[in-house]
Design a protein that fits this description.
alpha/beta; 2 domains; six-stranded mixed sheet; four-stranded antiparallel sheet; 11 helices; Rossmann fold; 14 strands
Length: 317
């Protein structure tokens, strides 16, 4: 019995074990219609394994996943007809022409002949490939190839789209164009679940789920995470030599966390006003030249680093 009024994607206590290794450890979440949910986490955190269970490509060890109203373990084929799936390894056939790839995937997804012409035109237009139908796919730049792959994954107009690291190896401008397409689909009611380790991409999601060692360690909108996850104040410190400053700050009692960001340091302290003069003095006494030290707003990357550090510390106790 399917309930199509429920959230399009529901996971309840999903667990996936490979032998003794627990890749996914009791993950529960829901994704609503038209929502873009991002899975963020280090490599090996369990993001892709979770997506693959939700797609019906991997069977959960325990727990339940309901996608498009169907139980993924019991009716994987029904689920697959109602989803689009694209991964970084999504294999367009390089030795086929653009139009041949589109027709091949249309046949896989049982796209009816009556709408075939209209769907072909839609994919070509979306990928920016109108007029290049007979180009060999392997010769396309990666940004175009990626948009073509997305078009092929959604030829059957699925209400739910799973994207597993879809933009790795693609230049920033193509990534932004790709995300514009994703948002256009979400605006039409498509539910999108995406894994990424790019922090700028995470900002495009309505909601983020941070996964670490197979568990959800935080979730919320990017703004909520930035407001909630950082305890204390964040300082930007520009100084020379950076390595020495990093070592000194790591040993300073009232520094909660310090990390290198480009050619500067991000330092978490309980109170910015009190810390700035103390840290300036401590660094200059040890021969570090400080050119800038000021409070800044945390980025998602700061939140991520801070949460991961807290998890690592909790794991060691």
């Amino acid at each position: 019995m399917t309930n199509h009024n429920a959230a399009p994607v529901i996971a309840r206590d999903l667990v996936k074990r490979f032998g003794d290794f627990v890749a996914v450890d009791r993950i529960s979440l829901e994704a609503q219609r038209g929502e873009v949910v991002g899975f963020l986490g280090p490599n090996g955190a369990g993001k892709s394994t979770t997506i693959r269970m939700l797609c019906g490509l991997l069977r959960p060890t325990t727990g339940q996943a309901i996608v498009a109203g169907y139980d993924v373990a019991r009716e994987p084929e029904r689920v697959r007809q109602r989803i689009g799936y694209m991964s970084q390894k999504f294999s367009l056939y390089n030795d086929l022409r653009v139009i041949e790839n589109i027709r091949f995937f249309a046949s896989l997804y049982d796209v009816p002949g009556s709408v075939m012409k209209e769907r072909e035109a839609w994919v070509l237009d979306m990928a920016g490939l109108s007029g290049r139908e007979s180009t060999l796919t392997g010769t396309l730049p990666s940004g175009w190839k990626q948009r073509l792959a997305l078009g092929c994954a959604v030829l059957h107009r699925p209400p739910i789209l799973f994207l597993d690291e879809p933009t790795s190896g693609v230049d920033p401008i193509s990534r932004r164009q790709f995300w514009e397409l994703i948002h256009a689909m979400a605006a039409e009611g498509v539910t999108v679940l995406v894994t990424t380790h790019y922090m700028d991409e995470a900002e495009y999601c309505n909601r983020l789920v941070l996964i670490f060692q197979g568990r959800i360690v935080a979730s919320g909108s990017p703004t909520e995470l930035k407001q909630r996850a950082m305890t204390g104040a964040l300082l930007l410190v520009e100084c020379e030599p950076l390595g020495l400053a990093l070592d000194l700050l790591q040993q300073t009692p009232d520094v909660a966390d310090v990390a290198v960001f480009g050619n500067a340091l991000h330092v978490v302290v309980p109170d910015a006003k009190a810390a700035i003069p103390r840290l300036r003095t401590a660094l200059s006494q040890q021969g570090v030249t400080v050119t800038k030290m000021e409070p800044i707003r945390p980025s998602l990357e700061d939140v991520f680093v801070s949460l991961m550090a807290a998890q690592e510390a909790a794991g060691k106790t």
